Amino acid sequence: MATTITTTLDPGVLHYMLVILLLSLQGSPAGARDVITATQPLSGLQKLVSQGGKFALGFYRPGGGLQDKWYIAIWYNKVQKVTPVWIANRETPISDPFSSVLTISTNGNLALLNKNSRSIVWSSNTTSTTAGASNTTIVAVLLNTGNLVLAYASNTSIMTWQSFNHPTDTQLPGMRFGRRNKLTGESDRLVSWRDHMDPSPGIFSDEMDTSVGAQFVLRWNNSRPYFTSGKFNPQTGAFAGIPSMTVMSRPNSIYSYEYVDNDKEEYFLLTVMDDSIFLRTVIDPSGQLKGMVWLEEKQDWMVYFVEPSDVCSVYSACGAFSWCAVDNVPVCSCLRGFTPQSQAEWSSGNYTGGCTRKVALPCSLSTPSMSSRYEEDRFYEINNVSLPDGPQATVQAANISDCEVACLNKCSCLAYSYNGTCSLWYSDLMNLQADLDNTGNNSIFIRLPASEIPRPKSTRGQTKGVAIAVSALALGVLCLVAVLCVLRRRRSRIKGLYNNINMTLMAFRYKDLQLITKNFSDKLGTGSFGSVFKGVLQDGTTVAIKKLEGVRQGEKQFRAEISTIGNIHHVNLIQLLGFCSEGEHRLLVYEYMPHGSLDGCLFKVISSDDVLPWNTRYQIAIGIAKGLTYLHEKCRDCIIHCDIKPQNILLDASFVPKVSDFGLAKLLGRDFSRVMTTMRGTIGYLAPEWISGMAITAKSDVFSYGMMLLEIISQKRNVELGKPCMDKFFPILVLEKIQEGDVRALLDAADMRRDDVNLEELERACMVACWCIQEHESSRPTMEEVVQMLEGLRQVDMPPVPRYLRVVAESATDQSSTLLDEMAAA
């Protein structure tokens, strides 16, 4: 059954006849009007501003003047960071806005003209205006939605053209995006910029998937799809392939996404409930689709969803003869023997042009014999890769040597891979990626001229006398070499290990770790399953080494931690660098965190000068939430931490939080949400389901996070075992003060003296924490929702008081042991 909607015109559209009349009577200062007429064109530094002041239109050049290329663009007028949302002449920039004019042409089109030659640089080119339309009857109006429309001056509700029907790289709220006419097949497409400084059309696009409907697809070069959103679900307000959008359609959300399908058209519609919120969806030059919102306090755009989340999943993100690795900076690297096709584009962040050979293959210049090809063309190996597109051919080969010969025997063969089957590539190598998970264990051999891979010179043909002399010399220095090897062996082993590629965990010997820790003499603290020591590598890198001690089934815990931490990478997760496994010696080597653990910064403060400022604590809370979101939602398998507490949050030199200690984590398949029932974790942060024996989900981490967030707010422990609790259990006090509207009373003396606490953030954090510690897991938000609430992207309602907190409030005792008993009973 078709779905229909009623369209309501912008309420301000009726004022334009009056505006035109006023403009004919007196001049209008530049930037004060929102209308272009034949007698009031736009030129130079003039601009239009929409009636509500939200958008502006004028001449724009990317980079703030680094190049003489000007465009007619629409941008946010109230955002300090100039952000274009639509560009007219993206393929035909002009060099001087003062010698150009944007006006209504004689046939009623909006046109960008060269003043001198009167030639048309760009035109709206709508044929519907030719019948009964002229430059005296048509006006161009910039609406407060960001839509530039052509309409009849006598009735501006009749539009002959609108920029919303011709988007560039951005979808704005209120813009219908899909199939505008089912009969003619007209449809919308977002096309990326070529790079961040060049708005000309790039090679990535976003459009509705007309073959399936109710979903959109991202394509490379207007042909090859590399990401599909999955079907849209009206009940959840999200696409099957983008579960993070579910929050959009929930009650009290600041935005919603709709799918409309009727006899004439089919489209998606993004709606924002609050007009003061600036939201946009952009197909980035990287090929990723990004949802972005403007954060006034940060004066920057924040990405609230991105697909595909891994830039290396974008087809040909790095072009030909390069490879993509998300851990590298930049992510794209030319293969050995190759150089960027365009160094200028490569420097600007546009890698899609790929790489080209430094030296042509000799066999491509002539037709040498088989034996000479062995001398002229060679191969170098790349390990742990996801193989490029293809292969173009498979041939019979008994082993890897036969496969190499098969490739060498064909001048057009550029690479080969052997894994029981010999695969050959004949065209540009596209989509070569680092296999961070090492799941495929694939290797590929790239063909290069011999000059790019020098081969040790052969001694064949030397005289017998020279051979004897060389042998004698070798014997003479043999002892010296042996001594040098012994002396350098220890140092070179450590250094060599750290020169490994960053995709591989480094295997240390126990003796190496004894050396760099000075026999484990500098103890940083005690963590789960053992103590942590400070170490310094040969190159000066400081590391933290966890020495696992006294643990039953320690090998199992060790391997769980290795498999969990070693393959994940996020700014808010601690990075595992290496390990040691020699008999009873099991150690983990981490990046070193100068500020130690969060509990030391919160609870072990010596003076008021040591207290973390509110803004720092708030950013720490957001960072931890982002790290847990990655574990729960972004990893290949859902990872439940199971022991979230301040001791397991480490702080780097800039107080960026890193979630650490995955010794208790369990890897879950995404199809399994309730599997663990064994009691784990730390008392004081345990969700009720831990104590009641119910199955555990990622929402258990949410509860622990909420308890920790309360501690970040108060800078005091919620529960002090063996000590009297504060006069009132802090979560109850938080709920009371929220209801009373007096969250300032929750601040400690140091915060009160600084008087720099953002009370809106404080109230938001308190309510988020109370939602996180709800008794029933279904009432708790996801960690992704927590991030959006803390960053102000989602409204936070007043949380209810959990039943177990009521039990605590009615209890006559303040002892923490009794508190835990009551929590279990509740």
UniProtKB/TrEMBL annotation:
Residues 33-163 form the Bulb-type lectin domain. Residues 363-449 form the Apple domain. InterPro entries: Bulb-type_lectin_dom (IPR001480), Bulb-type_lectin_dom_sf (IPR036426), Kinase-like_dom_sf (IPR011009), Pan_app (IPR003609), Prot_kinase_dom (IPR000719), Protein_kinase_ATP_BS (IPR017441), S_locus_glycoprot_dom (IPR000858), Ser/Thr_kinase_AS (IPR008271). One of its GO terms (biological process) is recognition of pollen. Residues 1-32 form the signal peptide. PROSITE patterns: BULB_LECTIN, PAN, PROTEIN_KINASE_ATP, PROTEIN_KINASE_DOM, PROTEIN_KINASE_ST. The chain crosses the membrane at residues 465-487. Gene3D superfamilies: Bulb-type lectin domain, Phosphorylase Kinase, domain 1, Transferase(Phosphotransferase) domain 1. ATP binds at K547. Its EC number is 2.7.11.1. One of its GO terms (cellular component) is plasma membrane. It holds the Pfam family S_locus_glycop. PANTHER family: OS07G0415500 PROTEIN, RECEPTOR-LIKE SERINE_THREONINE-PROTEIN KINASE. This is Receptor-like serine/threonine-protein kinase. It comes from Dichanthelium oligosanthes.
